[in-house]
Structures are given as structure tokens and as C-alpha cells.
Design brief:
Elements lengths: L1 H26 L4 E4 L1 H11 L22 H6 L3 H25 L4 E4 L3 E8 L2 E12 L15 H45 L2 H33 L4 H4 L6 E4 L1 H22 L22
Antiparallel strand pairs: 1-2, 1-5, 2-3, 3-4
Helix pairs in contact: 1-5, 1-8, 5-6, 6-8
Length: about 290
């Protein structure tokens, strides 16, 4: 009986902590972060080339690795000529990709379920972040403004991807709300079961904790899938991130994963506790045998 009370109390305490972590994750906006300071520094160095009158800049990407053989130079044929031409075309592509990334303005961002913050850092002071703008996360469809020179098939692909990303965001917010509601309802039932010493209510509370953990798993998986989908959208030059921009999950996401673990552990303890209870034995009195009666 004492072991059952210890397991039930521990499970309810873990469920209460899980509710706190999930509530903190929902109310904060540090689910996903991007840091563009290194990219901005690289683009700044790329743009600050020497432009004084006596200096002529020659990019290394426009120079061949070696001089072509004389025979190839005269004839312009052979198997090595095609490889050399492909190599010469490849190196200017790297420079043009660098210029295209620097033409797009990237800023450090922090996003959550409800808001997205765009930060800007002061020059040479990376510890100070200035909020440029704060935009709400949309859970209704609104078409974005696209360039007019895009082909029709690319435009249709972008519209379809917007719908898919919207569904993933809705699933993330909806299932995490369901998880918190189910866990809270199970915690109330578990507390009432402890007060009334009712084993069935404690078992139902454990099942509700496991159900809430399942909803939380679906929510976090759809959140991760939505972030990966946003990074892999087509065309890449509009939605992709350069390699020198660091990005990852924030502490709000880790709070949600911690709440998930505590919820599953609480459900396991609360469903295990009723099996340790010893059923009360009822004494049965046999009727006394009287003389002449059986």
C-alpha cells in the first residue's frame, strides 16, 4: 500500500512538472533559431574589396588551374578539353552563388508557435541584439508576394508548399494543445483518486498521461518535419539558407521534449501503481453447527 502511494505521488508530481515545461514551451518563442552573424561578416568582407585607383582585383575563380596544352588550344578538341571547359564554368558559378546569397538580406531570427522575431546585431558587438520586427505566425492561408518573372510551374509549386507548411503548423499547435488538456485532465483525476483511494481513477489517470504523451509526440514530430520542409522548399535560392548560417532548435523545443519524457514516465508510474495494491481480505464466518443439524 505504501509503495502504491509513493508511485502515484511521484507520477502526479512528474505530470505537474511536465505541465509546467509544456506551458513554458508554448508561451515562449525559442523553438527554432538562426544566427546570420557569420554570414553577414563574410558578405561584408566580400563587399569590402580594395577599390583604390591603383588596385585591380582579379578573382581567382576566373583563372584556369593550368594552361591548356598547345594541341588542345589549336584544335579545341579532345577528351580533356571538355573537362577543362566544365571546370572553367564551375568556378565562376561559386562566385555567382556567393553574390546571390549576399544580395539576399539574412538576419538572425527566433521563432515559436505564435511569433517570429527578426534580430539585427550591432557592429562588433555580438552580445547586443536589436529587434527589427516581430511578425505573428499565420495559421490561416494567405498567399505570399512572388516575383512576376517566375514560371507558372514554379509558382504552383510554391503555392502547394505554402499549403503543406500551413497544415504542418496547424498540426503542431493543435496536438500540443490537446496534449496539455489531456495531461491536465488526467492530473485532476489522479489527485481525486489519491484523495479517495480509488485505484481505478489512478489507472485512468495513467492512461490519460500516456495519451497526452502520444499527442505531444505527434506535435513535436510535425514541428521538426515543418522546419525541415521549410528548409528544403523549392526554389532553393528563395527559401534555402547558406551554409555559413548556423541554425538549430532553441530551449523552448527542449522544454517540450522534457515535458514529453516526464509525461510518459508519469503515465507508466500511475498505471503500475494499482497493480501493487493488496486487496483487502474479507473474513467469512462459518455458521455454528448445532446438535442434530448439519
Amino acid at each position: 500500500m505504501a509503495a502504491m502511494k509513493i508511485l502515484t505521488g511521484t507520477g502526479l508530481f512528474l505530470a505537474f512538472c511536465a505541465l509546467g515545461l509544456l506551458a513554458m514551451a508554448i508561451c515562449t518563442d525559442y523553438w527554432y533559431e538562426t544566427d546570420a552573424r557569420r554570414h553577414r561578416e563574410r558578405c561584408k568582407n566580400y563587399a569590402n574589396k580594395r577599390n583604390d585607383p591603383g588596385y585591380i582585383y582579379i578573382s581567382n575563380h576566373n583563372l584556369p588551374l593550368q594552361m591548356p596544352p598547345r594541341g588542345l588550344a589549336r584544335k579545341g578538341g579532345g577528351p580533356d578539353a571538355g573537362a577543362l571547359a566544365r571546370a572553367k564554368r564551375h568556378f565562376p558559378a561559386a562566385a555567382s552563388s556567393m553574390e546571390s546569397h549576399c544580395n539576399r538580406q539574412f538576419n538572425s531570427t527566433v521563432s515559436g508557435l505564435w511569433r517570429k522575431y527578426v534580430f539585427d546585431c550591432e557592429d562588433h558587438i555580438y552580445s547586443v541584439l536589436i529587434i527589427l520586427r516581430c511578425t505573428p505566425v499565420k495559421y490561416h492561408y494567405s498567399s505570399s508576394i512572388l516575383p512576376r518573372n517566375l514560371p507558372i510551374n514554379i509558382t504552383k509549386t510554391i503555392r502547394q508548399d505554402e499549403w503543406h507548411a500551413l497544415h504542418l503548423r496547424r498540426m503542431t499547435a493543435g496536438f500540443v494543445g490537446m496534449a496539455v488538456s489531456i495531461i491536465l485532465f488526467g492530473w485532476i483525476i489522479g489527485v481525486l483518486g489519491c484523495c479517495q483511494q480509488h485505484d481505478l481513477m489512478q489507472y485512468v489517470a495513467g492512461l490519460l498521461f500516456l495519451m497526452g504523451g502520444t499527442c505531444c509526440i505527434i506535435s513535436l514530430c510535425t514541428c521538426v518535419a515543418g522546419i525541415n520542409f521549410e528548409l528544403s522548399r523549392y526554389p532553393r535560392n528563395m527559401y534555402g539558407l547558406p551554409e555559413d548560417i548556423s541554425h538549430g532548435y532553441g530551449w523552448s523545443m527542449f522544454c517540450a521534449w522534457g515535458g514529453l519524457g516526464l509525461t510518459l514516465l508519469a503515465g507508466f508510474l500511475c498505471t503500475l501503481a494499482p497493480s501493487l495494491s493488496t486487496p483487502a481480505r474479507t473474513a467469512t464466518h462459518k455458521p455454528r453447527q448445532e446438535n442434530g443439524t448439519v
